[in-house]
Amino acid sequence: MSSMTNPFAADEPDRHVIWQMLVERDITAFLAADWSMVVDDFISDGFMGIDGKKLANPDDWRVSFPTLAAYRTEWMRQAAETRATDFADDPRAAIFHATRLEQIEISGNRAIAHKKFDGSINKADCGIDRLLRQSLYFCRKQEGRWRISGFVGYLPNPMGGA
Fold first, then answer.
1. What pairs with residue 65 in β-bridges?
2. Calpha distance 38→126 (Å, rounded)
3. Model's pTM, two decimal places?
4. How many Cβ atoms from other residues are within 10 Å of residue 55's Cβ?
5. What CA–CA distances, in Å, run from 24 to 17, 44, 128, 161?
């Protein structure tokens, strides 16, 4: 199955819509640098994002995004940087190829989604943008819709020991 294809069928509607939110919509919005495409995917009240700094030891992780606004600022910075990069490869295809979201645990109106990246995008200057990390997204079903309430991201992939 292509990584551009949602691995969750219609008989798993919750996982299906979580995948759509965290993979398809996120990649599309990120490459367009358009936060408005994903703003409704977040719960701002109580949102918190942890930056694992690509380090396996949780002692080194930081609350880099204590609010959704703080995360939005970093998301937009990264999206603008990506848009300004001249790639030799199609970045959309490369990001989809690198992205895996196959494990989503749902318990009532809560979910944890394991999003992993393992791939690269060739740059026009012969450099390589290596995508090798993972994130855990905490989601909550609110008013009938799944949304992101927080995450622990920028973790090494694989985790390894610390």
1. 49
2. 32
3. 0.93
4. 17
5. 10, 21, 23, 31
Nearest residue to 49 via CA among 25, 26, 72, 76: 72
Q: Tell me: the pLDDT tens digits for 124-134?
A: 999 999 999 99
- Distance from C-alpha of 76 to C-alpha of 79, rounded to nearest angstrom: 5
CB 33 within 8 A of CB 41: no
DSSP state of 21: I
**Token digits for 103?**
């494990």
Whole-angstrom distance, CA of residue 151 vs CA of residue 154: 10
Model pLDDT for residues 67-122, shown as the tens digit of each residue: 999 999 999 999 999 999 999 999 999 999 999 999 999 999 999 999 999 999 99
d(CA 136, CA 83): 25
